[in-house]
Amino acid sequence: MMTNLKLQKLLYYAQGFNLALFNQPLFLEEIKAWQYGPVVEEVYRTYKEYLRGPLPEPEDFNPEVMTLEERELIDEVYSVFGKYTGTILVNLTHQEKPWMDTELNQTITHELMSDYFKSQIIKD
After folding, report:
1. What are the backbone dihedrals phi and psi of residue 13, each rounded to the nearest 5 degrees, phi first?
2. pLDDT per residue over 45-97, tens digit each?
3. For every residue of the chain, which 3-state class applies, written as one string?
4. Does the predicted TM-score (pTM) go above 0.70?
5. Distance of CA 44 to the CA centre of its chain
């Protein structure tokens, strides 16, 4: 089940790995370090009304606007992290340098995410 909480963490992982692998952001919105982990505030507000419930499928989603590399990266992030609940993903992100090194409610920088995710790719 896709919840707002889970979506936020998947966006963070997709952005982080895209920065690490391709040296560019997957999307332009900032990721903030909120109490429950990384959050794309604009996306959070879009789905806020669903609370902890399942999110609807977006009506206007068109995967063709993304490159093949972007779609493959998103698919890989989902295959690795999509099996976890939002709560487990919160716990994972709370142990990671980008969230830990960013003050609450501040932007997690692309540089911090890129450096961290590059180290994870090399490690794995």
Report:
1. -65, -40
2. 999 999 889 999 888 888 889 999 999 999 999 999 999 999 999 999 999 99
3. CCCHHHHHHHHHHHHHHHHHHHCCCCCCCCCEEECCEEECHHHHHHHHHHCCCCCCCCCCCCHHHCCHHHHHHHHHHHHHHCCCCHHHHHHHHCCCHHHHCCCCCCECCHHHHHHHHHHHHHHC
4. yes
5. 12
Residue reference for tokens 């932007």: 107
CA angle 49, 45, 20 (to 5 degrees): 130
pLDDT digits (tens, 9 = 90+) for 106-115: 999 999 999 9
- Please compute, for residue 36, the number of CA atoms within 13 A of its CA located in the half-sphere on the CB side: 15
Backbone angles phi, psi at 88, to 5 degrees: -65, -40
- The answer to whether 93 touches 12, Cβ cutoff 8 Å, is yes
